[in-house]
Q: What sequence folds into this?
């Protein structure tokens, strides 16, 4: 498999959230607004790329029996650093994400990729894998938060996370009388996720059938 | 006293950790296919959380605060949890090999169960005293176990029902979770 394939895989076909069902706790919880999703997505990409690189660097000197504790300590250190950065430079993001920033430590995507990929690939491949998987997560939370925010408040807005007064983009799509406020509650999170997961499974099935047909014609 | 029981009830049902805070979704989806493994998982998680909460609470206030090492909280907590999970795993393997088999990979994954770390962190963040800490650390995992068990009974029924093709498996289970969460949100008015 070439490098680009690897990278592309994380986006849809092996999307960590919708098809591998990893890291769904934070996906469901922080997708109430597009702003939160972007902040969380960026934080996860940072941690994932850095942890993949470090784990791939130390893969030859890590004893096999204790590799999980070693990985966890690496990840926890990185998350703590990111948490301190967010606390210092984006305090409003820190309040709205709350406990979910430290909980990146236990986001299964990160440990999962360390275990499945970074521990036996070189640094460059691992970094690319981190970016691909991280983007997959980013897209997943972005799409979910977009659907939820538009349905529950009628529009969405993107603000500068380092300066909450600066609004980049603000759009209203649905008139106020027709919004469904349920979508900002947990119920809406579960429903949106279920429908998107079904959509991804439909898409994968269609792709597989297409490939099958192409293979048959080839013969 | 009433306030303490209020906290117990809130963390158990009103702010149920799975249905309103979405923590512990992985085992919630993963081990809820059979009633017996859901029950076993629930008990294992209760044990790990109660012990982990006590140990991390003591460590934080007796070791980290006097030494001004509060920023080490995340790393300390996760190490405590990882070793506790290892201990539980060894214990279950010895006493009930059947349960050990049915829990499979989800047993070591309690380490990365967000509920455990969440309880430890919230205890510190909200500045709970010992009474509140005990109530919160018992109520939360009980709520997790309760919902996991109810959900597993629903999923056993789902197994034999007719579901649209692409919703099979996790998608339909999530829809059930949505309906359960709707039911639990009715408790919000109680307190």
A:
């Amino acid at each position: 498999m070439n490098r680009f394939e690897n990278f592309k895989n994380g986006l849809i076909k092996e999307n960590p959230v919708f098809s591998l069902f990893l890291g769904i706790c934070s996906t469901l919880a922080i997708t109430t607004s597009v702003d939160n999703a972007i902040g969380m997505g960026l934080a996860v990409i940072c941690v994932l790329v850095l942890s993949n690189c470090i784990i791939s660097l130390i893969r030859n000197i890590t004893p096999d029996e204790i590799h999980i504790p070693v990985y966890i300590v690496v990840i926890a250190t990185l998350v703590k650093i990111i948490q301190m950065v967010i606390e210092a430079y984006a305090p409003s993001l820190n309040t709205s994400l709350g406990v979910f920033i430290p909980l990146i430590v236990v986001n299964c995507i990160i440990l999962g990729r360390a275990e499945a990929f970074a521990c036996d690939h070189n640094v460059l491949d691992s970094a690319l894998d981190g970016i691909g998987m991280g983007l997959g997560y980013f897209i997943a939370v972005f799409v979910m938060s977009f659907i939820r925010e538009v349905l529950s408040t009628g529009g969405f807005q993107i603000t500068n996370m380092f300066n909450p007064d600066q609004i980049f983009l603000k759009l209203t799509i649905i008139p106020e009388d027709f919004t469904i406020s349920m979508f900002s509650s947990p119920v809406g999170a579960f429903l949106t996720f279920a429908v998107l997961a079904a959509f991804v499974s439909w898409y994968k099935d269609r792709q597989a059938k297409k490939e099958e047909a192409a293979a048959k014609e080839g013969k | 006293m009433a306030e303490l029981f209020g906290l117990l009830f809130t963390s158990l049902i009103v702010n149920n950790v799975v249905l309103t805070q979405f923590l512990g979704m992985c085992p919630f989806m993963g081990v809820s296919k059979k009633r017996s493994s859901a029950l076993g998982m629930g008990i294992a998680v209760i044990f790990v959380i109660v012990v982990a909460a006590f140990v991390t609470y003591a460590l934080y206030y007796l070791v980290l605060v006097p030494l001004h090492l509060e920023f080490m909280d995340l790393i300390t907590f996760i190490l405590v949890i990882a070793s506790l999970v290892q201990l539980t795993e060894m214990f279950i393997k010895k006493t009930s090999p059947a349960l050990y088999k049915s829990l499979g990979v989800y047993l070591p994954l309690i380490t990365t169960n967000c509920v455990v770390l969440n309880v430890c962190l919230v205890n510190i963040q909200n500045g709970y005293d010992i009474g509140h800490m005990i109530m919160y650390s018992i109520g939360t995992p009980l709520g997790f176990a309760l919902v996991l068990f109810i959900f597993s009974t629903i999923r056993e029924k789902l197994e034999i029902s007719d579901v649209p093709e692409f919703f099979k498996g996790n998608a339909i289970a999530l829809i059930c979770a949505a309906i359960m969460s709707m039911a639990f949100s009715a408790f919000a008015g109680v307190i």
User: Anything to note?
Assistant: The two ends of chain B are 15 Å apart (CA to CA). Chain B has eight helices and no strands. Residues 35-64 of chain B form the longest helix (30 residues).
